[in-house]
Amino acid sequence: MKTDPIKPTVISLVNPRGGVGRTALAIAMARCLTGIHRKSVLLLDLDPSRRASVQLKGFDITEGSLLMRRIAVSSDASFALSSMTPLSMSRYNFVLIDTPATAGPSFWSAQSLSTHYLIPTLPEAAFIPEIARLVKMISRFSKRTNHGIKPLGIVATHVREPRAVAAFRQAMASKEEVAPQEIPPVFEHYVRHTSAFSGNRPSPVDVRGMIGECLQRLS
């Protein structure tokens, strides 16, 4: 009996700034989804630095339903993505896209594939206006292309003190130039500075709570 192909959840990790932990979070999420939740994951590395590809060199696992593969693309990422279709991704439960900071052709090609986007950020008030502009840009793109990409939320990264996340939420609520409906909700769970973002091997345990919250938002 022929079974219907999997309809993957495609999540792009986005932020207009570098150094916020997009790559580290993408790797940790992939490892958590495969290792703990036994999901099949495809990680697409569109960051020009190709850090995810370097860190995941040789990290191709096939074990029953557990499948993770990394794909590194050249600077012509938009061309490489043109071959990616829902059917070619149907063997995966999740596709995670580590996007470049610059909103160029590669970035928008990633959005055209994505069902959702996630915003990793340092919990600092200075990032809020840029995040709001990015959300508006993606919303306009979604409406123009009739694609319907949905925001999953904001994940605080490099967190040294929990109170920093609370202060970040308060800063967002008090920003007069940013309407509350323009900003996706901040995840209750965050990633500590000394865990997933230390060294080259982020631990899936460090993002287990965030992944659980993510799956809940997707359900």
Instruction: Please tell me what the overall shape is.
Output: globular
| Total number of distinct structural domains | 1
Q: What structural class do helix, strand and pairing data support?
A: alpha/beta
Structure annotation, total helices: 7
Please state how the strands of the largest beta sheet are arranged side by side.
3-4-2-5-1-6-7
* Residue runs with pLDDT of under 50 for 5 or more positions: 58-79
The CATH homologous superfamily is termed P-loop containing nucleotide triphosphate hydrolases
Helix percentage range: 25-40%
In what range is the share of β-strand residues?
15-25%
Radius of gyration: 17 Å
The CATH architecture category equals: 3-Layer(aba) Sandwich
Mean pLDDT: 78
Largest sheet: 7 strands, mixed
Which fold name fills CATH's third level, the topology?
Rossmann fold
- Quaternary form: single chain
The count of strands amounts to 7
Question: What CATH first level would be assigned?
Answer: Alpha Beta
Termini separation: 27 Å
N-to-C series of helices and strands: EHEHEEHEHEHEHH
